[in-house]
Amino acid sequence: MKMRKGVRFFGVLWLSVIVCSPIAVAGLPADSIARVSDAMRCEGLRSLHAYVLLDRLLRESGARLSGSAGAAKAVALTQTMMQEEGFSSVHAESVMVPRWIRGRVERCTMVLPSGTSRSLSIAALGGSIGTPKRGVAAGVIEVHSFDELARRAEEARGKIVFFNRPMDPTLVNTFAAYGGAVDQRAHGAVAASRFGAVAVLVRSMTLLHDDAPHTGMMSYADSVTKIPAGALSIVAAEALSQQLQLHPDLRVKLALDCATMPDVPSANVVGEIKGWEHPEEVIVVGGHLDSWDKGIGAHDDGAGCMQAIEVLRLFQKAGITPRRTIRAVMFMNEENGVRGGLGYVADHRRASERHIALIESDRGGFVPLGFSVQADSAVVERVRRWSAVLASVGAGAIEQGHAGTDVSPMVETGVPGFGLVPESQRYFDVHHSANDTIDKVNPRELELGAIAEAILCYLLSEEGLN
Ligand SMILES: [Zn+2]
Fold first, then answer.
1. How many CB atoms sit inside 10 A of residue 293's CB?
2. How far is the CA of 245 from the centre of ligand 1 (A)?
């Protein structure tokens, strides 16, 4: 049955203590937006339930590299979680995913001309081929850009190319610093191989001075010989750089036994609260369920997935049935293929639906500052009118920009995309490394992100973007 107008409240009465205002049981009072956002904030910050969910995901699934046993467990577990919350249409949507295996051997040793050797912390980059069983041993040239590599092309032949340009520490936005350095990781192997190099080492993409290597995706080109690629920890990169200055003829021995296997089946996981007025109109809120394998993907992106589930739970707990369907999507395979994001758009179920907006949280579960809106300027201006409401949880900054990798395939068809933007100073401390564990997650910060997304979902659902 369709209600006359406005929001339908049911069930749960807010018997609040001290700071939280009671919520209306019926109708749409003028201050309903404030009441709903208050209700969501109070329930969220009292329960800190996103953290409870995240802790369970990480304990029961562990690392979730696409195609791994951990990823399969997470697909089953998140369906169970959403069924337990009582969401509608909980199901998995199949996608085929790449399966890259790290293997057991990851060894990098620096050997000085004196014969002294030192072990360097390394992680194979995602997608890399392994070395021959006996490893690769060669001299090293250190470069800081592709231009420098091209100038020194003659020196690269038969060598290991070591890309050592740091993320720019003078930038406040660490994502900008990452964006300014990650070309080395993504394209270094192709560039070095063109000049006859035998392997590539890349300085980890982090601003933290520690000994944990930070992995991530790299790519090959069909026209160029594939060479192995690994990320050195910052401590290892600086040690290698220092010794190269003293001993330019030092050698490095590298052994990796990673490999790419045939694609395997996996899935996106979906659950929703059906809209009472326009059930066919969908607002997606999501993150990616896969993770790198060095840590257990607490911030990247267990946080975003559990926030999405928490968004729907906050609607339920606040007693709100939205006008439009709010759907939580756990996308698979963001890290090394985006098959989940691509598969979501291509799935036959989309034919009878109309997407209003997609929200992604994939920048860590840190204190939210606002949203990055991937849409035309008119939409951005429209969303800016909601700044004051979102600012009630600190997330009032609205900027035009990238929404998120998983939602990109649909956003590129013209549907507005939103990326939750949290504070960024600590994200690359943990990103793609063994540091990405639950102890780095602050339950209140994680929850505030979920509340911000829930408020945005509510505004999108009730007011639309027109
Ligand atoms: Zn991510």
1. 24
2. 36
